[in-house]
Amino acid sequence: MSVGPDNGTGSHAAGQGAGGYGSGYGNGPADSNRQYENVTDAIPPAEPLRSAHGTHEKGEVSSIGAIIGEITEDMSTLMRQEVALAKAEVQQSASQAGKGAGMLAGAGAAVHYALFFLSIALWWALGDLMDNLGWSAVIVALIWGVIAAILASMGKGQLKNVKGMPRTVDTAKRVPDALQGNEGNNR
């Protein structure tokens, strides 16, 4: 059943939508009389395309200066992000190293006092056995020299295990390939 006027073919009158309210492309009866030379004229203008850095009309070509400006802005953003990553990694590594060093210093101070008094006791015990406090002091000093060398070696090994900035170094190595368009080399 047809709602609008019928021209005898079962379809609506030319230029009339359902109920005689236009073609469906306009805003009502006023648009139904508009004539278009071709189909593309009836299509409303497209919304402007949004790029990452601005609005470009359909078919508009960006100037080289605008493209270079966008690239410069992207590089600036990339460098700021790399600096932020480096700062975060340095802070994390420094924090871990600082905590470890602080704990070792506290333990070292406590052990220092305990060992000081144990050393005095050993010195006097050896002096009593040897009947010579001078040589017993030398023996205790040599024992502590050996212990110091062992601890220094172990401490050096621990400091080698402090990690630097592995992610920053990895990302920084990838930047030249990305700039040259060889991002496939980064995988």
TrEMBL record:
Descriptive protein name: Putative superfamily III holin-X
Chain intervals for the UniProt region annotation (Disordered): 1-36
Residue ranges with Gly residues bias: 16-27
Pfam family, one: Phage_holin_3_6
Transmembrane segments annotated in the record for this chain: 101-126, 132-155
Keyword Transmembrane recorded: yes
InterPro entries for the chain: Phage_holin_3_6
UniProt keyword annotations, A-Z: Membrane, Transmembrane, Transmembrane helix
Keyword Transcription: no
